[in-house]
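Q: Got a minute? One more chain.
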Amino acid sequence: MKMKKKKKENDKLIGIGNGMADSLLRGLGVGGAATAAVKNIIIEAIRQSKKKRPDYQVAALKSLSLSPPISSKINKLRSAALTYQYNKDEIMEMGLSLDNPAYLAIGKLTSAATNVPLDRLFQKYNNLSVAMDSQTETWQTIALALGWDQWSLGLDPYAKFKKPKKVKKSSFFGKRKNNKRKKPLF
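A: Always. Here it is, folded:
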């Protein structure tokens, strides 16, 4: 346990030092920003190489940190593609429903191409529909209405799209488990 705690503290200190170095380098102008971008690419490549399944796309995307507006647009395009990739089946099944993840993907594409924040409109709709759900707790409803995202509140925005897993009858008391949130106490 002490080793894990020590490692977490070291990782925090390294993260703080890295952030300070980025700030100082970016303050030096374009050359410093380029140096910070190269440094972050190298750090991410090393971090990815230590994983069992490295994803070097993440390191390549760090190269876009030189220009935050371009980085933002590329991240929105990537997010739209991932939304479609992960939810293909649900998109085809849901049709023209407003809960369809395709609308969020289209909103992100529109936002990346035209700077019209259509993705925020669909995200706000999704948050408010979850806020109105009877299974959402009061504090979560308030936070969702104020703009917090569902992941930050411990809610799974894709739970309604997941198919319940089949549970053997010999499971805990023979009841079927599902992915729904707990009901509020009051």
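A: The helical segments are 2-27, 30-49, 56-61, 68-86, 88-94, 101-114, 118-131, 138-146.
Q: Perfect, thanks.
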